[in-house]
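Consider the tokenized backbone below.
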């Protein structure tokens, strides 16, 4: 009888000790997790704040809070190549297009917009392809609305930058797309002629 009681007591003691060990391990692990979380909250992320384009931006666009966002990135040695958000961006214009989500390179900004082309609005006979973005270069063609032996379509504009594109509905409830492009001075007359003669105008991505 004495042996049985002693064995039962030993088993009970082992069970209590095992439970204490588990509680001790859980407590230590919880304290470690809390310490890591506190240190992470108190730390400051490394890197500087840089400007990224909020949407596709064309050349001659003036930078502002409406078309750009600030993001903190550690670019290391590449940092001087991109515009930081603490700069005077209100006095900067883009010299070349920047896609949405891209960092804005220092080489793509200028103090004053310098343009060697004329911005013109053109209503298209067919909407732009879905893979065309603001800032892309377009070739523009025109042709007669009906076929005749002499109605061969001709290219009236070469590599015009797309500044903007808007789609609206006309009086017949049909979708109409109007684009704004920067046309070379020598090609302005051809565009005006196509508009005056109410020719069908199509724009495609320049190769």
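A designed sequence for it:
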């Amino acid at each position: 009888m004495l042996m049985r009681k002693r064995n039962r007591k030993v088993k009970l003691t082992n069970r209590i000790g095992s439970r204490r060990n588990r509680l001790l391990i859980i407590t230590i692990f919880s304290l470690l997790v809390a310490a890591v979380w506190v240190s992470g909250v108190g730390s400051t992320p490394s890197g500087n704040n840089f400007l990224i384009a909020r949407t596709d931006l064309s050349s001659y666009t003036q930078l502002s809070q409406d078309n750009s966002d600030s993001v903190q990135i550690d670019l290391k040695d590449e940092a001087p190549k991109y515009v930081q958000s603490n700069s005077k961006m209100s006095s900067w214009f883009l010299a070349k297009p920047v896609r949405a989500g891209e960092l804005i390179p220092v080489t793509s900004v200028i103090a004053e917009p310098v343009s060697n082309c004329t911005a013109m609005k053109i209503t298209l006979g067919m909407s732009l392809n879905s893979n065309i973005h603001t800032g892309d270069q377009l070739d523009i063609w025109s042709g007669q609305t009906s076929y005749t032996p002499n109605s061969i379509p001709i290219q009236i504009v070469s590599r015009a930058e797309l500044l903007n594109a808007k789609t609206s509905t006309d009086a017949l409830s049909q979708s109409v797309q109007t684009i704004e492009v920067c046309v070379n001075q020598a090609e302005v007359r051809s565009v005006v002629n196509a508009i005056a003669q109410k020719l069908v105008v199509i724009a495609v991505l320049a190769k």
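The first helix runs from residue 2 to 42.
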